[in-house]
Specification:
Chain A is of the alpha/beta class and 511 residues long. Chain A folds into 2 domains: 290 residues, FAD/NAD(P)-binding domain, CATH 3.50.50.60; 176 residues, no CATH class. Chain A is built from 13 helices and 20 strands. In chain A, helix 1 runs parallel beside helix 13 and helix 3 crosses helix 13. In chain A, 52% of the residues are buried. Chain B is mainly alpha-helical and 146 residues long. Chain B has one domain. Chain B has a two-stranded antiparallel ribbon. In chain B, helix 1 runs antiparallel to helix 2, helix 2 crosses helix 6 and helix 3 crosses helix 6. The longest helix of chain B has 17 residues. Classes of the chains: A alpha/beta (511), B mainly alpha (146). The interface between A and B is medium-sized, with 33 and 33 residues. Chain A: InterPro entries: FAD/NAD-bd_sf, GMC_OxRtase_C, P2Ox-like. Chain A: Belongs to the GMC oxidoreductase family.
């Protein structure tokens, strides 16, 4: 059942076993998983079924670190940011969950094996097709398209694409028809109110932009409002805990991470494009899935060289020819010597030819891992939104070492292509320490309620329960301890399904 | 020799060989060998003129000196360690260089020219071409870098 919060009488009290705050990828995944169980579930969404500027405006805030737009990448209505996501999916690597002594604050309290069964289920939720991420045989089309043999440092991995699933549209009926779920639209949780000891949530204070106020009294609360808003919501819940709920150690909002996306950090020249399987170059249908091959860095390489991860895509850019038209010729030094580099490769490879086409130049894109940094954080601004709540203040920090790490990884890519023999790499990443605002970000918001077994090191435990608060859970990328390199949505959904199982088990056991 | 070598480049390279042949008998044999050696190595290049431009840029950007003899001997020494000998057929030389180049990439022995990452031997082959074709910057002190 869908209920417009603007029509709920002032002072109404809604009782429920489970309250889910936020109807994005995580919230909808959990609600679906809990549909038709013997428990009343309330799903509370700030927006309606469509985009509304006044609601979206609640996302605005201030940025005091690396310039960052708070109100453009997120969408505040039913379905959340899945209403415009790109559909890139891939599980995290096993090493991403490990404690790496060269990455301060790394180490999840769960590992990849803990998530494996949920990744398979998340794949279904995201309508992706067969789970063939790490199966070269499945995507080789009978052996026709083999991955490039790039040695021990660089590996080919595959993304699979969601259509992309618009969770609000695709799963609306599941949610609306579920006998045990009431969805309150246009309803903003303004504060999560615990008992006097701040050890248990008792009620949620809800308001609408039209001024209505009501309460939800749940036995269990799942906060699923996104990687930035989850932290803000806890910080705003400060009537009892002045520093914010679950923030006794000052960790809520810290460790904000993104995936810096650098356009064309390097170019790759390859003598013969036929050596490059189609799945590297664009979205490709294979074995019932829509896939794309990317370059990542092996766990051995990352350990040995003490690096953070990077994922690199590439695409055909331009033929490198001997007969360049002077009018078209790029005067850049690198372009001047480009045909010479191609001839140099052909001098020592088996691919010398008669054609004026010497090689193909490929452009690249990349997303790279950012080291967790407690000073990179979400805070509350002194400015207030239309509900009278403090807006978000973001102080995003990137370190020179994050940038140096990317440069080193690209050098590893250059080694790999050179050792392969038929390719060379030109590094375009400017040789400077600072990140530039012109460089792109992934719009992936992670780490602000990080997961750690030790309450001194994280906000939530391995079950995504807030340390010290017995019935409050957090879903979404804010629980990521480290960011990995690949897009977060599949992992968000996998963690959400795991959390739904956990909550359901608690109800089954009556705990 | 690759089809990509122009008539002009052929003349230049032939000139290198002719110059070697015309050297006075009194000139130490080693020098004549060095000159011939340069020709052998340059003959593996698909496009010596373009290689020379890469070599020139590398030498300018690194303020690197060096002449034909120095570069040829450095490269030959590395190839010799892989069983190659002066006078081997061009295809054998090319193959030996290819193996060496891939080895250098595997062992992170790369140089950067305008962002391009190429192996040290490739860079020195290009510098050799520049020195042989007379496009190298004026020589300073010969580099002793190995």
């Amino acid at each position: 059942m869908f209920i417009d919060g603007r029509n709920v009488p002032d002072g109404t009290i809604v009782e429920a076993e489970v309250a889910i705050i936020g109807a994005g990828a995580a919230g909808i995944s959990i609600a679906r998983a809990l549909r038709n169980i013997d428990a009343r579930v309330v799903l509370i969404e700030s927006g309606g079924l469509d985009f509304e500027p006044d609601t979206q405006e609640l996302y605005e805030g201030e940025s005091v670190g690396v310039p960052y737009a708070l109100d453009t990448s997120r969408l505040r209505y039913f379905g959340g940011s899945t209403n415009h996501w790109g559909g890139w999916c891939r599980p995290f690597e096993p090493i991403d969950f490990e404690q790496r002594d060269w990455v301060p604050h790394s180490g999840w309290p769960i590992n990849r094996a803990d998530l494996d069964p949920y990744y398979v289920r998340a794949n279904e939720v995201c309508q992706i097709g067969p789970f063939i991420y790490d199966d070269p045989a499945a995507v080789s089309e009978g052996g026709q398209y083999q991955p490039l043999d790039l040695g021990k440092e660089v590996m080919t991995r595959w993304f699979e694409y969601s259509p992309p699933t618009r969770f609000g549209w695709t799963y609306r009926q599941d949610i609306e028809k579920a006998s045990n779920i009431k969805t309150y639209l246009n309803s903003n949780v303004m504060e999560i109110l615990p008992n006097a000891e701040a050890t248990k949530v008792e009620r949620l204070r809800v308001g609408t932009l039209t001024g209505r106020r009501f309460e939800v009294r749940p036995q269990t609360v799942i906060l699923a409002t996104g990687g930035i808003e989850n932290a803000r919501m806890l910080l705003l819940s400060n009537s009892i805990e002045k520093a914010g709920l679950g923030n006794g150690r000052g960790l809520v909002g810290r460790y904000f991470m993104e995936h810096p996306h650098i356009e064309r950090p390097c170019e790759i020249m390859i003598t013969d494009p036929s050596l490059v399987a189609p799945y590297y170059q664009t979205y490709t249908q294979s074995a019932g899935a829509n896939i794309r091959g990317v370059f990542m860095f092996t766990a051995d390489y990352l350990r040995k060289n003490r690096r953070l991860g990077t994922v690199m895509t590439f695409y055909k850019q331009k033929e490198v020819r001997t007969d360049i038209d002077v009018e078209e010729k790029d005067t850049e030094a690198a372009r001047d010597i480009e045909p010479g580099i191609a001839q140099l490769i052909r001098s020592t490879s088996s691919k010398a030819n008669e054609s004026p086409v010497l090689a193909m130049r490929y452009g690249t894109g990349c997303a790279t891992e950012q080291a967790p940094n407690p000073d990179s954080r979400i805070m509350l601004s002194t400015e207030k939104d239309a509900l009278g709540l403090n807006r978000t203040k973001i102080d995003w920090r990137l370190s020179p070492s994050d940038r140096a790490n990317l440069r080193h990884n690209i050098e590893a890519l250059a080694r790999a292509f050179g050792a392969w023999g038929e390719g060379r790499v030109r590094i375009r990443l400017p040789d400077r320490d600072k990140w530039d605002e012109a460089e792109g970000w992934g719009n992936h918001h992670m780490g602000t309620t990080r997961m750690a077994a030790d309450p001194r090191k994280g906000v939530v435990d391995a079950n995504c329960k807030v340390h010290g608060v017995e019935n409050l859970y957090v879903a979404g990328s804010s629980v990521f301890t480290t960011s990995a390199t690949v897009n977060p949505t599949l992992t968000i959904v996998a963690l959400a399904l795991r959390l739904a199982d956990h909550v359901q088990t608690r109800f089954t056991r009556g705990v | 020799m690759s089809d990509a070598i122009s008539r002009r480049q052929l003349l230049v390279l032939t000139g290198v060989g002719l110059a070697a042949a015309a050297l006075p008998a009194a000139l130490p044999l080693l020098d004549r060998e060095r000159t011939t050696l340069a020709g052998e190595l340059i003959a593996t290049l698909a496009d010596p003129a373009r290689a020379a431009e890469i070599g020139r840029q590398w030498m300018v950007s690194t303020e690197r000196g060096g002449n034909t003899s120095v570069f040829a001997q450095k490269i030959a020494k590395r190839l010799h360690a892989r069983g190659w000998h002066p006078g081997d057929p061009t295809d054998v030389t090319r193959s030996a260089i290819g193996e060496r180049v891939r080895y250098e990439f595997r062992h992170d022995d790369m140089v950067e020219i305008s962002g391009w990452q190429i192996s040290r031997t490739e860079a020195e082959l290009c510098a050799l071409a520049a020195a042989s074709l007379g496009t190298a910057p004026a020589e300073t002190e010969p580099s002793t870098e190995g």
